[in-house]
Amino acid sequence: MSETTGRRGRPGHDQQAVLRVAVDLFNRQGYDATSVGDVARELGLTKSAIYHHVPSKEHLLQSAIDEALDALTAALDAVSAAEGLDAGQRLRAAVRSSVTVLVDHLPAVTLLLRVHGNTPVEKAALARRRGIDERLAAMVREAADVGAIRADVDPLLTSRLIFGMVNSMTEWLRGDTDGEALADTVTTLAFDGLVRHED
């Protein structure tokens, strides 16, 4: 019998369903304040039954964080590998991609941005996130060096401001968002500003 149809009379849940519920609880209550028992109750399972699906609470955290980091890394890899883009276009594409990843993986990205390094899993996540931040800052520097963006603002500050704007969307964004339209808006604001330019 498959996991989705349940075993020994237990309600049917696959690992992804368990993960979705756990991430929702981690985001609402905080990771430290959420127990495996909380996840089990939300799913209508006993605490012992939850271990039929996942080995530990840390495994759920790791899975969610990996989802976000893997998606962000893949998006940047795709931008870096794209042919025919200059440094400015690569940076714009990276900003666009970061928005669409956030929309497509909102619960996991939200959780990633809330980890504090209290556990080995969180420490490893923060190290990976720093690596992504360094890649983005390098893209900003390259765009500034070739004159695609202004060079009179510190590239690290520019990177923090742009991607801080993107990351802040986890605080107010909800489901059913058109990721492509939002990505267009963010990149327009980031690169063209709010001032209306006459044709």
From TrEMBL:
Name the DNA-binding segment ranges: 35-54
| Pfam families cross-referenced by the UniProt entry | TetR_C_24, TetR_N
Domain HTH tetR-type as annotated: residue spans: 12-72
Per UniProt, the keywords (alphabetical) are: DNA-binding, Transcription, Transcription regulation
Which protein are we looking at? TetR/AcrR family transcriptional regulator
UniProt lineage: Bacteria, Bacillati, Actinomycetota, Actinomycetes, Propionibacteriales
